[in-house]
Amino acid sequence: MRRVVFNQKGGVGKSSITVNLAAISASQGQRTLVLDLDPQCNASQYLLGMAAYEGDGPSPNVGTFFAQTLSFRLKEKDPQEYVHATAFENLFVLPSNPELGEIEHMLESKHKIYKLRALVKALEREFDVIYIDTPPAYNFYTLSALIAGDRVLIPFDCDAFSRKALYTLLDNIREARDDHNEALEVEGIVVNQFQPRARLPQQLVDGLSEEGLPIIGSYLSASVIMRESHDLAKPLIHLLPRHKLTQEFVALHAALAGAQ
How many domains is the chain built from? Predict the structure, then answer.
């Protein structure tokens, strides 16, 4: 299973959702890979720690992979060489690198849009589930992810601007499916940073449901524990397994597994 976590708006919790769902998959015995396509490297730093990004960061990485597709002089690596183990059993990461931003226009001009799909299909033989974290934009890397994936999970942070952007996002997914990947499906919209006592978030979610959008019933609350989890580079299932937000992630993971 190849799950893409995608939203064109920043700050909606993409990397947090990617890493914590992946960590739960791994904790349940599935060999799990996080593939980080965001040049900001948030998911990679969450799993490997900030210290891993001192200097040039972990190598080889997804930037290394894309760079070698631009030159016939570079020997292609075995796909497994790009994968790094984390401190957590069954959980691996193919880390990102800021170099992605520098080479994006070259990749576009040389039509390398299907290269990621080939890499992911090769890695799929070694992993039970692959989570792909994407940049907060609809660009070459996001489209590459949508071509490589089979399901899309959309974080939604209960904001009026996010609601407006949601329809454009869904149109982009439909276009990617129609033009490149007919097997691609929208798995659902994840309500993140939900505040049950506030009126506006519930109104926004109810409105989306009334419009027939695929809202997943397991919501994620806003909590300061997420920041601590980032700082310690420790997913919630390993940091505080009984915390309310952790259990909400477990419920979300179970809801996704039950819908398969």
Answer: 1
